[in-house]
């Protein structure tokens, strides 16, 4: 379904590469793509996506919540704050669950409408759009940029290029700074940065992430999508003939050719395509959608906006390039609900409901039991059998709790802690060495199962029960 025919080079500048033999025929020098600015419904949607997503990225880091940062991944303390929730490493399976949902969502939207993620929400697309906007504000339109790059180095060109890269680098460093602000409280990070007192790791990640943003969005751009992103290579496995993709209506558009507005294309033996190449000039990856759907297409729909604008000016119907399906193009009906979409929907809804329910039922209390491995058991002076344990109590709540510890499973068990009341501060971890004693007469086997129950005194609904093994002498 995806075409790999040679792409037009209309959107690039400079002389054509010399044709040679051997390796020269396999690889061509990279040509910079100068995407033309375009306006239309899909361009507005992309701008909206950029504003919303970048606004969330840069804004949430500064959002306070109950005296702390709303979203903070505190690695040294092993706490991950997401608004009113506090997660611990023990909750990692929630993250894995979320990744599964994200992957299935990608499959679902790709099967439904192609590369929506790539065209509107991918970080590479979002930051590249921001960098292109900066470039246009400083260097001008597409034609002005091409003319500037072809001209000799002059003081004006040097100042223009220097200003562009200064703004790019500043924006990239601010992006890296914001990224680190999700791991180190951003207000503290700001004070340290103003005082030139950033730690080595904070400095490294600010510059590393800033450099990655500058390189990917400023220099590599479409090369990331074409050569580095694996999604471009396996997307066709998720497409079918009923997937909405950007397509050129060859039957309506060909034969292509330029003409005046008042010329009837039918009488001139032409199709609706005026061969203006604007669809190529606006493409951020530099492809010609008229050559068929290609894996380089990121589904941004810039070519649709450009073509619709030309059709309006010529007085033709819109939709020469449009979102459609392969079946629709050949006159077949495209069902919205088909087995693949239905199955993805059912699984996604089930997983999403399950995740929300699991988080809502999550108890902010963990009890880990570690049995002393230095000795299986020991017999006390009064003839009791004793096992030693280390209990690790983790209060994952945002307020302190007092817990009552109890045991069950065997009759007459005695805990060494008196009284069995334990206080754990908010977000605290307490290790508690204890011993459990029992009369050997009660033991019916060598290995016995017992339970430790930890229950909050101030909140009886908050409790945790874990099992452990109690070892005794060999029963003869």
Number of domains: 2
Number of strands: 16
Shape label: elongated
The CA-CA distance between the termini, in Å, is 74 Å
Low-pLDDT parts are 4-23
The rounded Rg comes to 32 Å
Strand % is 15-25%
The percentage helix is: 40-55%
**What does the average pLDDT come to?**
90
Major sheet summary line: 5 strands, antiparallel
Broad structural category: alpha+beta
How many helices? 16
Task: Please provide a written account of the structure.
- With 476 residues, the chain is of the alpha+beta class.
- It has two domains: 362 residues, no CATH class; 107 residues, Immunoglobulins (Immunoglobulin-like).
- Helix content is 40%, strand content 18%.
- It has 16 helices and 16 strands.
- The radius of gyration is 32 Å and the shape is elongated.
- About 4% of the residues have low confidence.
Q: How is the topology of this model organized?
A:
Layout lengths: L22 H4 L14 H20 L3 E2 L2 E2 L1 E4 L4 E4 L2 E3 L4 H22 L2 H6 L1 H17 L2 H9 L4 H26 L5 H9 L5 H21 L1 H7 L2 H4 L10 E4 L1 H4 L24 H4 L20 H13 L6 E4 L1 H4 L9 H22 L4 E7 L6 E2 L5 E11 L5 E8 L5 E2 L5 E4 L4 E10 L8 E10 L6 E9 L5
Antiparallel strand pairs: 1-2, 3-4, 4-5, 6-7, 8-10, 9-10, 10-14, 11-13, 11-15, 12-14, 15-16
Helix pairs in contact: 2-5, 3-16, 5-7, 5-9, 7-9
